[in-house]
Structure formats: structure tokens, C-alpha cells
Design goal:
Blueprint lengths: L1 H12 L3 H12 L5 H9 L4 E11 L9 H12 L6 E6 L14 E10 L1
Parallel strand pairs: 1-2
Antiparallel strand pairs: 1-3
Helix pairs in contact: 1-3, 2-3
Amino acid sequence: MLHALTNAISGITGVNILGEIADRLCLEQGITDSSVYVREALKYLNGEICHVSFSVECLKPKISPKIPDMKKSIARLLNIDEKNIGITATTGEGLTDFGKGLGIQCFCILTALVK
């Protein structure tokens, strides 16, 4: 989810974090904590995040029981209220590879006031 969030921020700033910058952080500095990538992306955001919405599709793990803790963590990371974070989850009913347990798909939509 944090990679999807990083990409959403990159979409606003035009600075691709999950490319050369993340490679440098990971491969050269050994940083694998995805929250570091989000913080790096936020450095380029000239404005404030209003709302963020995630849509997750996977068979495992079950996301719904984890949503409250995930919201708290993301709210702290972004310095926004938990009520401004939406997280939905589906198994895809086995219709996709994600719903069959072959991976996890996550999309993130971010609304920000940019200066």
C-alpha cells in the first residue's frame, strides 16, 4: 500500500520515487522500509494532502480486520486525520489472479491542495 501511496504522490509531483531514487535508497543505503519512500515523495509535494483512498484486492491476507490499524499508521505518516483515509478491500471472488491468491493489487487515489 505504501508503494501505491508513493506512486500517487509521484503522480502529483512528477518526481518518480519508485525508480532511481528508491533504487539508491534500497540498493546503496540498504533502506527497505517503504515509509521512507513515502517521506521522500512528500519532500517534493508543495501543498497538503486532503484525502487518500486505497483499494486492495487479494485473497490473503484478510485486509478488513487490519483496516483500523492501517488507517492509524498512514494518518501518522501523512500527518492527516484518519477520517480522511479510505481503505476498501475485496477478494475479487476468485475472478482474477489476485483473488486466486497469486498476489496483491493496490490502487491509491490522493487528493491534495497544491500551491
